[in-house]
């Protein structure tokens, strides 16, 4: 039986009085890829940011309801610990511009004041870059700046930086929207590899991408989770007319 890693119940999020995520109930199975889709402004990014408590970093942003990681209430855990367990990759690759590739990978440890020996650092850097399918391309230039890499390589570096902290869940907010088709394909391939170790939740506007990479898809509309199902089923046999209208391109 598949086990649930993240579950939300009656989860709401607000910016001031603007109610942007409405009563969301979802269960995310471990070692799966979940695509979050829906029209612009429907609350996809906000919901993603609620999973690891990034939402509360925005002034005026609040939330209520339950968000669980296994049997632990995320909102009763220390936020730093939550973000170690639930990593995030953003839309635009954002390696630290002044740091080398090597230091980018272990930046999370430094930022959180966690000290590592040189051999631990070397091991984590090699392992994370191998898992993010970047090691072979950068192993001879680890001490060059991360910004010298291509956009797709920078995004893989950001994935390496996130997985260096050994999270259980990786949240990805439109991780390929700033990339060319070849880099996009390499990230999609990587997502497929990563799901054997991590659980991935990916916001995407690209229906083909959702169909290619995800096991289940969550369709949001005006802040509501309208439909959540096995991706193939949701695309071929949507139950709700709003999902049907979206996947047939009647609104974007
Ligand atoms: N920092 C913010 N302050 C105030 N309102 C915000 C903020 N960020 C988002 N919102 C509002 O919250 C709602 C949901 O936005 P969100 O970014 O979660 O939607 P989305 O589905 O991810 O959109 P997109 O696909 O365009 O990225 C929108 O009405 C948006 O205007």
UniProtKB/TrEMBL annotation:
Stretches assigned to the ABC transporter domain: 6-247
**Top-level division of the source organism's lineage:** Bacteria
Query: Mind listing the UniProt keywords for this protein, alphabetically?
Result: ATP-binding, Nucleotide-binding, Phosphate transport, Transport
Q: Which GO terms describe its biological process?
A: phosphate ion transmembrane transport
What does UniProt give as GO cellular component? membrane
SMART domains referenced in this protein's UniProt entry, alphabetically: AAA (SM00382)
Q: Name one GO molecular function term.
A: ATP binding
PROSITE patterns associated with the record: ABC_TRANSPORTER_1, ABC_TRANSPORTER_2
Tell me one Pfam family matched here. ABC_tran
What name does UniProt use for this protein? Phosphate ABC transporter ATP-binding protein PstB
Gene symbol here is pstB
């Amino acid at each position: 039986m598949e086990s649930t890693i993240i579950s939300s119940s009656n989860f709401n999020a607000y910016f001031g009085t603007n109610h942007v995520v409405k009563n969301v109930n979802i269960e995310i199975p471990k070692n799966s890829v979940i695509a979050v889709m829906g029209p612009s402004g429907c609350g996809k990014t906000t919901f993603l940011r609620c999973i690891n408590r990034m939402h509360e970093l925005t002034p005026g942003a609040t939330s209520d309801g339950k968000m669980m990681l296994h049997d632990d209430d995320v909102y009763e855990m220390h936020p730093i610990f939550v973000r170690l367990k639930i990593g995030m990759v953003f839309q635009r690759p954002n390696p630290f511009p002044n740091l080398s590739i090597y230091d980018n990978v272990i930046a999370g440890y430094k930022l959180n004041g966690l000290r590592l020996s040189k051999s631990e650092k070397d091991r984590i850097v090699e392992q994370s870059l191998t898992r993010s399918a970047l090691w072979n391309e950068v192993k001879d230039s680890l001490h060059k700046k991360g910004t010298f890499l291509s956009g797709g390589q920078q995004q893989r570096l950001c994935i390496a930086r996130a997985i260096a902290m050994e999270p259980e869940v990786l949240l990805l907010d439109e991780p390929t929207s700033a990339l060319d088709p070849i880099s996009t394909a390499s990230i999609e391939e990587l997502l497929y590899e990563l799901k054997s170790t991590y659980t991935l939740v990916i916001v995407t506007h690209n229906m083909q991408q959702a169909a290619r990479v995800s096991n289940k898809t969550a369709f949001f509309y005006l802040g509501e989770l309208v439909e959540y199902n096995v991706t193939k089923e949701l695309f071929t046999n949507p139950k709700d007319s709003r999902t049907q209208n979206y996947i047939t391109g009647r609104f974007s």
